[in-house]
Specification:
heterodimer, A: 340 residues, alpha+beta, Ribosomal Protein S5, domain 2, B: Ribosomal Protein S5, domain 2, five-stranded mixed β-sheet, four-stranded antiparallel β-sheet, 35% helix, exosome (chain B), RNA binding (chain B)
């Protein structure tokens, strides 16, 4: 990504620093060190789940660093007759970049960049192995659509890792409202008067003495036509399978070495980057959910295997610390709520 | 009919517990953000806006340069999750372009553009959360970001919105009130008491206009106090670190001198 242009001399200086023994980087980190990461969930009160993540923000005056805001919002969609809905719900992800993050890009270039990031996030997160089980509402009629919007507010390098971490945190934070299906029945005995009966969880509550139902009929005919929210003030239940959302680790490659968490100038000096999207312990010890190379360098198959092995180690560290932080955030919010 | 939210109840309180002329809390953060030359994050109650200023710098497109003054370029981006119902607005959206044009015309007479011929000042506004008073938050944020970037201006621009509920004027409306009540936004320059913007998209009785206009001007002055405080605080902290730095340097040179003596 040529978002910053640097001179040949600067490029070779940065590359030489990375290949030197011991390696040296402008901010004194070692090759595999990350900058500080700060994460906060529940930042957008109008969304069903949200997170703000920054990498490399100065802790004293809150300045600088990559900053990403992600929020998940749920909407109801009709399935069939003109609705876009899909059985069991669907997810759509969008990444938008503030022009302030890339001040030297023209608006067309910014659109292209947004599109690239959207494709990577969307393709990884909407894969059906990750699909949450509780996005359906009424079989064949209504389902939730989850819109995940990530906004890159500022980019100081390593934006993909930040976007994926923010996405995972926002989805972790997402609560799906509980719904109850409602069905309307015509009263047969009372003649023309119409009443409505409520059905809890789709199980029958009908007057059985009117119609003889065969005991062999085991079909479940869904007659519910609409749904309601049993409790408006309840936030709902967490999105199913929230442990599965992957994290991304970007390996910046300066042959034969590689390093993590590049700043923007370091990114400009790196000919090739490999993105690895990985998830752990769900249900396999390690699953690779995506892999991308960015830039115009080349890699041999043996190198890829090596990078994958190294990437797995780094990603697991990110995974563990992100999970710890998310659990802590959940605990804090529970504590806040139990105050009242 | 279910109970409806009262805009102003009999006790004189509004739906969020404020009095008629009470403003929402203003929170200003002027710390450095990304590569921006000046940035400001401002919240009016729940409305949350982030403004970054770049420039004066060379224009990205040569055709945009003006030979005797700087060109002001305003771009507004609204986060899809900033409103109650999700709506994705692209940059080319007419409503957003008009909004950006309003901000631009508000600041054109205030920024001393003639000092920077053939250059461009970029103002990027990112709306993170909306709860009424969007234009006011954007204008106040832009003023602060421009000052933070050190761009010479004639005065502050302080914006505030107001509306009239039946006969009683209200200041600093939330989204709920904005939807229900005829409202206007004005931007005041406190030193000269000039007004650089008045907009109204609803209808308001002529007799009521003067009163709300006067009140909003006064509220603009109150907001000016807050903004000035924030700018002074930021400048002081910057000056403090400059002094600290120069002290350290002189301390170091003194130490060096001692070393030389030894």
């Amino acid at each position: 990504m040529a978002s910053t242009s640097i001179s040949k001399a600067e490029r070779s200086y940065i590359q030489a620093g990375i290949l030197a023994n011991p390696p040296s980087r402008a901010d004194g980190r070692s090759l595999y060190d990350f900058r500080n990461i700060a994460l906060e969930t529940g930042v957008a009160p109008l969304a069903n789940g949200s997170a703000r993540l920054s990498i490399g923000r100065n802790p004293h005056d809150g300045s600088g660093g990559t900053e990403v805001l992600a929020a998940a919002k749920l909407e109801v969609e009709n399935i069939g007759d003109g609705g876009e809905g899909v059985e069991g719900g669907r997810i759509s992800c969008t990444v938008s970049c503030s022009p302030a993050a890339y001040p030297h890009l023209s608006s067309n270039a910014l659109d292209d960049l947004q599109y690239d990031m959207t494709t990577i996030l969307n393709e990884t997160l909407t894969h059906r192995v990750l699909h949450p089980p509780n996005l359906g509402i009424l079989r064949g009629k209504k389902a939730w659509v989850l819109h995940l919007d990530a906004v890159v507010l500022y980019d100081e390098g390593n934006v993909y890792d930040a976007v994926f971490m923010a996405a995972r945190a926002a989805l972790w934070d997402t609560k799906v409202p509980r719904t109850r299906s409602v069905e309307y029945q015509a009263k047969r005995k009372g003649g023309a008067t119409k009443g409505n009966a409520e059905k809890e969880g789709g199980s029958g509550d009908m007057d059985v003495d009117e119609e003889v139902v065969s005991g062999f009929d085991t079909r479940q005919i869904q007659t519910a036509t609409d749904f309601e929210l049993p409790d408006y003030w309840d936030e709902g239940e967490p999105l199913g399978g929230r442990e599965n959302w992957p994290v991304c680790v970007t390996l910046n490659i300066v042959q034969p070495s590689h390093f993590l968490d590049a700043t923007q100038t370091e990114e400009a000096a790196t000919p090739l980057r490999v993105l690895l999207m990985l998830a752990f312990d769900t249900p396999y010890p390690t699953s690779v959910l995506g892999m991308r190379t960015l830039g115009n360098g080349e890699l041999t198959a043996a190198q890829i295997a090596e990078l994958l092995k190294a990437g797995e180690k780094y990603a697991r560290e990110i995974w563990t610390s992100l999970n710890a932080k998310l659990k802590e955030e959940t605990m804090n919010r529970l504590k806040e709520r139990s105050k009242f | 009919m279910a109970s409806r939210v009262e805009i102003l109840n009999e006790g004189g309180y509004r739906s969020d517990g404020r009095r008629q002329f009470e403003l929402r809390t203003i929170d200003i953060d002027l710390s450095q953000q990304g590569h921006a030359d000046g940035a400001a994050v401002i919240t009016h109650g729940l409305a949350h806006v982030m403004v970054s200023v770049f420039g004066p710098r060379e224009a990205k497109m040569r055709s945009q340069t003006i030979h005797d003054r700087a060109n002001i370029n305003v771009e507004v981006a609204v986060a899809a999750f900033s409103t109650g119902d999700r709506r994705k607005r692209s940059r080319g959206d007419k409503r957003i372009l008009e909004f950006a044009a309003t901000i631009k015309s508000t600041f054109e007479p205030v920024i001393q553009t003639s000092l920077y011929p053939r250059s461009q000042i970029d103002i990027f506004v990112q709306v993170i959360q909306q709860d009424g008073g969007l234009l006011q938050a954007c204008i106040n944020g832009t003023t602060l970001a421009l000052m933070n970037a050190g761009i010479p201006m004639l005065d502050f621009v302080c914006a505030v919105n107001g509306g009239v509920h039946s006969t009683s004027p209200l200041l600093d409306l939330t989204l709920l009130e904005e939807n229900d009540v005829p409202n206007l936004t004005i931007a005041v320059m406190p030193k000269t008491r000039k007004v650089s913007l008045v907009t109204m998209e609803t209808r308001l009785h002529v007799d009521r206009f003067e009163e709300i206009f006067r009140l909003a001007t006064e509220a603009g002055l109150a907001i000016h106090g807050e903004m000035k405080g924030a700018i002074l605080g930021r400048s002081k902290s910057l000056m403090g670190s400059i002094e600290l730095g120069s002290q350290q340097r002189s301390g170091n040179t003194a130490a060096d001198a001692m070393d030389d003596d030894d």
